[in-house]
Amino acid sequence: MAIDQFDIKQAKITKGAISQEIKEYCSRQPELKAIMTFYRDVFGIQKRYAARIPAQMPNLPSEEINRRMESRQPLIESGDIKLDLGMLRDIAKDISEVIELKSPSPPNGLARSISKKTTDKKWLERFAQSFIQKNEGNMAQIAREADLEPALASLLAHTMLAPFYWKKSIGLRKKAPLGQVPSGFCPICGSRPVMAFLRTEDGLRVLECSLCGTRWGTPRMICLFCGTRDQKSLRYYFMEEDRSRRVYVCDNCLSYLKVSDLTPRPGEILVPLEDFATSHLDQLAQDKGYKRVSSTVFS
Is the dihedral of CA 63, 68, 69, 71 positive or negative? Predict the structure, then answer.
């Protein structure tokens, strides 16, 4: 697999930038205010704790990085994430409070339940490790011990562990060739993307990881989830009133990926907010029988 090198600009998101973008989005789509402000408040907690997590320099030589990327093996392995259980307990408590107070469908008593359950360090570590190891069955079992519904457990685990992935991924991004990676899964941590965009300067299709936040470029004439290049199987749909936002579908694996075209206009994009603003495309694709392979933990 040849990886062409493009300069991939990684997102630098601040809570202030999110607040400003929310105003812009909600001026056009007022119904988005609740979910977007919920995301902003969770992000603020994540950012605050991420500042306390020590930076982690990558210990992989360039040859090993290239080997793993050639074989589509994530650069971060499950044993690489070093957890501070005390900090993790605090993050879980703070995020559960925001979920209970600000989420569109608030679960009553969540904060009290999580505060009590996370005093059990063994339970907390088992819960975190099941997510890190992508063991959904084990995680569901552990979540039931705290009376957590699967979707809520996934939201809590994802949001409280993301800051650890952010700090682990920063150094690796600087060493990895991320310009043309023919995969729909993050080359740094192996997680699914939120969605994609075509960047302004050259139309490169760029994906953003839902967990570690890494951006990577991809070829455009390929399904990133099954690898087919059969153009008869690949197409896209859009709404007539907004052709710049599209949903690309694959008839071979029945997956879809949302893509926003930024080439006609300059500027940056906050991918999680754009994901909320394009939920109508999820419905369009799902009504046609396609499934979402990308990831959103907030919907």
Answer: positive
Give the Å distances, CA to CA, from 62 to 65, 198, 244: 5, 28, 38
Put simply, whether the predicted model's pTM sits higher than 0.90 gets the answer yes
- How many other CB atoms are found less than 10 A from the CB of residue 104? 9
Task: Answer yes or no: is 30 within a domain.
Answer: yes
> Does 121 lie in the same domain as 245?
no
Q: Which long-range contacts (CB under 8 A, 24 or more apart) does 56-63 make?
A: 56/82, 56/167, 56/168, 56/170, 56/171, 57/171, 58/171, 58/172, 58/175, 60/172, 60/175, 62/175
Residues 108 and 253 in one domain: no
* Domain of 44, in residue numbers: 15-175
pLDDT average, residue stretch 150-170: 93
Strand pairing report for 215-218 and 205-209: antiparallel
206 and 74 in a common domain: no
In angstroms, the first-to-last Cα distance of the chain is 35
Measured between alpha carbons, how far is 174 from 253 in angstroms, rounded to an integer? 33
| Domain final position from 145, 175, 205 | 175
259-297 confidence digits (pLDDT tens): 999 988 777 889 999 999 999 999 999 999 999 988 777
